């Protein structure tokens, strides 16, 4: 009889300790860390897709365009929408847009590891883009975006005057320019008029805020900034 009573006492004590530990954990998560968890949940609720702003035009004294912009298709991969058979899907998409399969798969794997949307291929040909659009519902992980590409109507004829663009080349340069709205993959004028008038020619990138569910699937576009 005493053994049974002793076991009951120990069982009650064990249950009390477990309830105390559980209550302490809940208090820590809801009260101490509650604000941080709410902020993190709100961030995970949205995905931000940045849209490159077109640069300003360069005209000669008569108003003839010397540097303009043309629209191109760029393909992106969103690993948060990745489902089964991603390798087979990636091979199929690579074939549709006419790009090399091995490198394409490598970029997909890197994006999944890094858990961020990446540029898969720039300047997809219109024909290849339309081929993909016909079946894009089968590949929710991949999407096309229309973006701006610098165009010089006279090719290299006035390159010594107009200059050229490159993307940000170092972390130090990015840190120096980020306060002015530049991102790590922004284009910057390196020579000639493109460099001299960089502050006037560089536009402000836009952004699309997309609300997603727990699996990262888009629900609706909540806000656009142009």
Order of H and E elements? HHEEEHHEHEHEHEHHEE
What is the helix fraction of residues, given as a range? 40-55%
* Most strands sheet: 4 strands, antiparallel
Low-confidence parts: none
Q: Would you tell me the structural class of the helices and strands? A: alpha+beta
Overall 3D shape: elongated
Arithmetic mean pLDDT = 80
Radius of gyration: 27 Å
Beta-strand residue fraction? 25-35%
Count every beta strand, where a strand is a DSSP E run of 2 or more residues.
Answer: 9
| SS field, number of helical segments | 9
Separation, N- and C-terminal Cα atoms: 79 Å
Describe the model.
- This protein is of the alpha+beta class.
- It is built from nine helices and nine strands.
- The chain has helices spanning about 1-30, 35-45, 85-95, 100-115, 125-135, 160, 170-175, 190-195, 200, and strands at about 45-50, 60, 65-75, 120-125, 140-150, 165, 185-190, 205-210, 220-225.
- The strands form three sheets. Strands 2, 3, 4 and 5 form a four-stranded antiparallel beta sheet that branches. A three-stranded antiparallel beta sheet has the order 1-8-9. A two-stranded antiparallel sheet has the order 6-7.
- Helix 3 (about 85-95) packs across helix 4 (about 100-115).
- The termini are far apart.
Task: Give a quick rundown of the structure.
By secondary structure, this protein is an alpha+beta fold. It has helices at residues 2-32, 34-45, 86-97, 101-114, 126-135, 159-162, 171-177, 192-196, 198-201, and strands spanning 46-51, 58-59, 65-77, 118-124, 142-151, 165-167, 187-189, 206-212, 218-225. The protein is built from 9 helices and 9 strands.
